[in-house]
Automatic annotation (TrEMBL):
<dbReference type="GO" id="GO:0008982">
    <property type="term" value="F:protein-N(PI)-phosphohistidine-sugar phosphotransferase activity"/>
</dbReference>
<keyword id="KW-0808">Transferase</keyword>
<keyword id="KW-0597">Phosphoprotein</keyword>
<dbReference type="Pfam" id="PF02302">
    <property type="entry name" value="PTS_IIB"/>
</dbReference>
<keyword id="KW-0813">Transport</keyword>
<protein>
    <submittedName>
        <fullName>PTS lactose transporter subunit IIB</fullName>
    </submittedName>
</protein>
<dbReference type="GO" id="GO:0016301">
    <property type="term" value="F:kinase activity"/>
</dbReference>
<feature type="domain" description="PTS EIIB type-3">
    <location>
        <begin position="3"/>
        <end position="103"/>
    </location>
</feature>
<feature type="modified residue" description="Phosphocysteine; by EIIA">
    <location>
        <position position="10"/>
    </location>
</feature>
<keyword id="KW-0762">Sugar transport</keyword>
<dbReference type="GO" id="GO:0009401">
    <property type="term" value="P:phosphoenolpyruvate-dependent sugar phosphotransferase system"/>
</dbReference>
<dbReference type="InterPro" id="IPR013012">
    <property type="entry name" value="PTS_EIIB_3"/>
</dbReference>
<dbReference type="InterPro" id="IPR036095">
    <property type="entry name" value="PTS_EIIB-like_sf"/>
</dbReference>
<keyword id="KW-0418">Kinase</keyword>
<keyword id="KW-0598">Phosphotransferase system</keyword>
<dbReference type="InterPro" id="IPR051819">
    <property type="entry name" value="PTS_sugar-specific_EIIB"/>
</dbReference>
<dbReference type="InterPro" id="IPR003501">
    <property type="entry name" value="PTS_EIIB_2/3"/>
</dbReference>
Length: 103
Protein backbone atom coordinates (compact mmCIF):
# COMPACT_ATOMS: atom_id res chain seq x y z
CA UNK A 1 0.00 0.00 0.00
CA UNK A 2 1.32 3.45 -0.85
CA UNK A 3 1.90 6.01 1.86
CA UNK A 4 -1.47 7.50 2.69
CA UNK A 5 -1.85 11.24 3.14
CA UNK A 6 -4.76 11.91 5.49
CA UNK A 7 -6.37 15.09 6.80
CA UNK A 8 -8.31 14.94 10.06
CA UNK A 9 -10.70 17.78 10.82
CA UNK A 10 -12.67 18.87 13.84
CA UNK A 11 -14.03 22.27 14.79
CA UNK A 12 -10.76 24.00 15.66
CA UNK A 13 -8.18 21.27 15.06
CA UNK A 14 -7.42 20.62 18.75
CA UNK A 15 -9.06 17.23 19.34
CA UNK A 16 -8.14 16.07 15.85
CA UNK A 17 -4.53 16.88 16.72
CA UNK A 18 -4.61 14.37 19.58
CA UNK A 19 -6.38 11.83 17.38
CA UNK A 20 -3.82 12.32 14.60
CA UNK A 21 -0.97 11.68 17.05
CA UNK A 22 -2.65 8.49 18.26
CA UNK A 23 -3.25 7.26 14.71
CA UNK A 24 0.42 7.96 13.89
CA UNK A 25 1.47 5.84 16.89
CA UNK A 26 -0.84 3.00 15.84
CA UNK A 27 0.44 3.14 12.25
CA UNK A 28 4.06 3.20 13.40
CA UNK A 29 3.47 0.15 15.61
CA UNK A 30 2.22 -1.69 12.50
CA UNK A 31 5.19 -0.53 10.45
CA UNK A 32 3.01 1.60 8.18
CA UNK A 33 3.88 4.92 6.60
CA UNK A 34 1.14 7.45 7.05
CA UNK A 35 1.13 11.22 6.79
CA UNK A 36 -1.67 12.57 8.90
CA UNK A 37 -2.41 16.23 9.45
CA UNK A 38 -4.97 17.75 11.82
CA UNK A 39 -6.70 21.01 11.03
CA UNK A 40 -9.91 22.88 11.71
CA UNK A 41 -12.82 22.38 9.32
CA UNK A 42 -12.33 25.84 7.82
CA UNK A 43 -9.04 24.66 6.24
CA UNK A 44 -10.35 21.66 4.27
CA UNK A 45 -10.24 23.45 0.91
CA UNK A 46 -6.51 24.15 1.34
CA UNK A 47 -5.64 20.44 1.46
CA UNK A 48 -7.97 18.69 -1.01
CA UNK A 49 -5.31 18.43 -3.73
CA UNK A 50 -2.77 16.90 -1.33
CA UNK A 51 -4.72 14.14 0.44
CA UNK A 52 -6.00 10.61 -0.15
CA UNK A 53 -8.52 10.66 2.69
CA UNK A 54 -10.38 13.19 4.79
CA UNK A 55 -11.51 12.03 8.22
CA UNK A 56 -14.22 14.25 9.69
CA UNK A 57 -15.04 14.39 13.41
CA UNK A 58 -18.42 12.81 14.18
CA UNK A 59 -19.74 16.10 15.60
CA UNK A 60 -19.28 17.64 12.13
CA UNK A 61 -21.60 15.25 10.28
CA UNK A 62 -23.69 18.27 9.33
CA UNK A 63 -20.91 19.61 7.05
CA UNK A 64 -20.58 16.46 4.92
CA UNK A 65 -22.59 17.91 2.02
CA UNK A 66 -20.35 20.97 2.02
CA UNK A 67 -17.26 18.74 2.21
CA UNK A 68 -18.42 16.74 -0.82
CA UNK A 69 -18.61 20.03 -2.74
CA UNK A 70 -15.03 20.90 -1.74
CA UNK A 71 -13.85 17.46 -2.81
CA UNK A 72 -15.70 17.51 -6.14
CA UNK A 73 -13.98 15.13 -8.57
CA UNK A 74 -10.79 14.83 -6.52
CA UNK A 75 -9.88 11.22 -5.63
CA UNK A 76 -10.36 11.81 -1.91
CA UNK A 77 -12.19 9.35 0.35
CA UNK A 78 -14.35 11.21 2.87
CA UNK A 79 -14.76 9.28 6.12
CA UNK A 80 -16.99 10.30 9.01
CA UNK A 81 -15.20 9.16 12.16
CA UNK A 82 -17.19 7.03 14.59
CA UNK A 83 -18.09 8.52 17.98
CA UNK A 84 -16.93 5.43 19.89
CA UNK A 85 -13.25 5.77 18.97
CA UNK A 86 -13.26 9.54 18.53
CA UNK A 87 -14.52 10.15 22.07
CA UNK A 88 -11.71 8.03 23.51
CA UNK A 89 -9.09 9.18 20.95
CA UNK A 90 -8.46 5.50 20.11
CA UNK A 91 -5.87 5.69 17.33
CA UNK A 92 -5.89 1.95 16.67
CA UNK A 93 -9.64 1.83 16.03
CA UNK A 94 -9.46 4.99 13.93
CA UNK A 95 -6.65 3.45 11.86
CA UNK A 96 -8.67 0.26 11.38
CA UNK A 97 -11.63 2.31 10.18
CA UNK A 98 -9.42 4.32 7.81
CA UNK A 99 -7.85 1.21 6.29
CA UNK A 100 -11.23 -0.49 5.89
CA UNK A 101 -12.63 2.54 4.08
CA UNK A 102 -9.58 2.79 1.79
CA UNK A 103 -9.95 -0.78 0.47
Amino acid sequence: MKKLNVLLVCGSGASSGFMAANIRKAASAKGMELKITARGESEIENYIDEIDALMVGPHLAYILDEVEEFVGDAPVKVILMKPDYYATLDGEKALEHLLEEMK
